[in-house]
Description:
The chain is an alpha+beta fold and 189 residues long. The protein is built from 6 helices and 4 strands; from the N terminus they run ααβααββααβ. The mean pLDDT is 91.
Amino acid sequence: MRTLLIVSLLATAGVVWAGELESLTDETRAEVKQILPKVAGMMKAAVDEQGVAAAIPVCKDKAPQLMADKAEALGWNIRRVSLRTRNPERATPDAWEAERLEAFDARAAAGEPPASIESAEIVTDAAGRRMFRYMKALPVAPVCVQCHGERERMAPELVQALARDYPHDSATGYAPGQIRGAVSVQRPL
Ligand code: HEC
């Protein structure tokens, strides 16, 4: 009798848990999806209208600013991370993020479409607080390789501009379809 009760309690808790994770994920994905097309659109327009070197501020300032504005409005933490960073001060992943980025690469290599690769989990942080964590892969689109592709194929003024600001740049050598990094969200629960 007691065993049955415990089993059914656990089952109920399990259902609630899965439901919570699912609704948090849906909600978070919807917010992230509002930012990404804006960044991609601004990037394409800037490259087309002003040339690649002049479009640097879109990835450098505008994309982080859009994420910071959204994060502030919602009380979340939102940033970009990558296993091969251009700006290591901003985008170096923590252990949870690095593990997922590695899994994202493996999933893409196994044939999963990069645009739909994501990961979500409810974790307890070092201070004992429950936290929802979410990551969505950022696939390399054709426009991205202009600044994140083979260095030998970039215009000299672009190579110069990148070298000036980013002496530790590891974010080159990507091809379309690969995963450039991810948007990483943390929400206190
Ligand atoms: C005009 C050049 C340019 C283009 C085109 C470009 N980026 Fe970037 N990207 C940069 C620069 C510069 C940074 C460094 C930003 C910083 O200082 O935080 C960067 C940083 C990033 C980062 C943060 C992680 C890191 O390496 O520091 C991600 C993720 C990223 N880019 C993804 C993309 C994606 C996806 C595309 C295509 C949609 C793209 N970029 C197109 C110049 C560019």
